[in-house]
Amino acid sequence: MKRFMLVLSSIFIVSCSFAGNNESKVQSKNMAEFTAKDEQAEFTLARMTCSDVFDLFEDADPEGKTDLEDVMDAQDDVLDLLTWVNGYLSGRDGIDASKYALNKAGIEKTLFSIVDVCKSNEAKRFLDVVPNIK
């Protein structure tokens, strides 16, 4: 339950930073080589588990962290992941801005959807549970 609450607080923080941060660096990343820091380890989207996604959300939460650059990097990685998920869902279901909006409400909806499909599937590969997002 504690982990779930941490993830929810991270969701709020990341969605707020996405909605109001016009200074974030725009980086072109190939999602097949999407990487994120997890105690100096790198992993690819193809191998990420739902647990890895939750770890990424926790890394993006600035509460109690002293290295804000690492937090900002994690937030950028979360936004890259959310952008990929948005593109996947738009490709799967057709482009519908009212369903998959790239604004604060849309990002929060996507984050909650990820949490919903991952919370009982932490050991499963993220790519295997993404199709279950409604």
Q: How would you summarize what this structure contains?
A:
Helices cover 55% and strands 0% of the residues.
Description:
- This protein has 134 residues and is mostly helical.
- The protein has one domain.
- Helices cover 55% and strands 0% of the residues.
- It has five helices and no strands.
- Helix 1 packs antiparallel against helix 4 and helix 2 crosses helix 3.
- The two termini are 23 Å apart.
- About 18% of the residues have low confidence.
Number of strands: 0
Q: Please tell me what the overall shape is.
A: globular
Number of helices: 5
Characterize the main sheet. Answer: none
* String of helices and strands: HHHHH
Tally of distinct domains? 1
Radius of gyration: 14 Å
Helix content: 55-70%
Q: How many angstroms separate the termini?
A: 23 Å
Estimate the strand proportion.
under 5%
Residue windows where pLDDT falls under 50 for at least 5 positions: 18-41
* Alpha-beta content class: mainly alpha
Q: Return the average pLDDT rounded to an integer.
A: 77
How are the elements arranged and paired?
Blueprint (H helix, E strand, L loop, with lengths): L1 H19 L29 H10 L8 H26 L10 H15 L7 H4 L5
Helix pairs in contact: 1-2, 1-4, 2-3
Task: Name some characteristics of this structure.
134 residues, mainly alpha, 0% strand
